Amino acid sequence: MVSSQDAAIAVALTELDYDVKPAPEVFSVTKDAPADGRLEVRDVIVAVNGTPVTTTAEVGDAVRATPPGTDVTLTVVRDGAEREVTVTPGEKDGSPFIGIDMLPGYRFPFDVSVDIDPAIGGPSAGLMFSLAIYDTLTPGSLTDGEIVAGTGTISPDGKVGPIGGIQQKIAAARETGAQLFMVPPDNCADALDAPNDDMQLVRADTMHDARLAIEAWVDDEDADLPSCEKAAS
């Protein structure tokens, strides 16, 4: 879920032409390891010993290149503020280590938070997160106040990936009064067997495509939109 939210934020901000920079993000900190109490989950690492880093591999290489007993200074972004954290590496299997797991992350131009119950997991809301963030950061309502639903994972380049349970999600969206449902292209075949009634099933290859389809529909409800029906024909 965390990775999905970060990718959604990156895609939405990129769609708005903001500068989004890759940066490794702390995913977990090993208890009693050198980094325990120094680094925190969600810290974004932007430099090691003053040298900028953009990948998890660069952080790992910098730590392993540190002479035994020498401190490592990591520049991190935490709660929107940049700070320096000093860690003294330990040794594991003959190599320096600090005890963190990382994922590819991003350095955003400003803080964006997604207010979702942390008990909810899974990446299937990525597309809708990105559309909601875009909507929040632009004037007016992207859907003109109408209910638009959808599903799909989101990759950093904006592509929409498949999910499970598409038919159940379509049925639930229709019951809430949604008029459009964004469908990942790989789920189109299963989506056509769902009870969508008059709710349009829009094929969403990318977040950009989904945004354009919604805008076209708001301007004209009879607009010719990408559809699962066309994909199947």
Give me a quick take on this structure:
With 233 residues, the protein is an alpha+beta fold.
Helical run tally: 7
Class of secondary structure makeup:
alpha+beta
% residues in beta strands: 25-35%
Strand order of the largest sheet: 3-2-4-5
Helix content: 25-40%
Looking at the overall shape, the CATH architecture of the largest domain is 2-Layer Sandwich
- CATH top level of the largest domain is Alpha Beta
User: Oligomer, anyone?
Assistant: single chain
List the helices and strands and how they pair.
Layout: H1 2-15, E1 21-29, E2 44-48, E3 51-52, H2 56-64, E4 72-78, E5 81-87, E6 90-92, E7 95-97, E8 100-107, H3 126-136, E9 148-150, E10 153-154, E11 160-161, H4 166-175, E12 180-183, H5 188-191, E13 200-203, H6 207-219, H7 228-232
Parallel strand pairs: 9-12, 12-13
Antiparallel strand pairs: 1-8, 2-3, 2-4, 4-5, 6-7, 10-11
Helix pairs in contact: 1-3
Structure description:
The chain has 233 residues and is an alpha+beta fold. The protein folds into two domains: 21-107, PDZ domain (Pdz3 Domain, Roll); 126-232, Ribosomal Protein S5, domain 2 (2-Layer Sandwich), CATH 3.30.230.10. 28% of the residues lie in helices and 25% in strands. The protein has seven helices and 13 strands. The strands form five sheets. The protein has a four-stranded antiparallel sheet with strand order 3-2-4-5, covered by helices on one side. Strand 6 and strand 7 form a beta hairpin. The two termini are 34 Å apart.
Please name the defining characteristics of this protein:
Ribosomal Protein S5, domain 2; single chain; alpha+beta; 233 residues; Pdz3 Domain
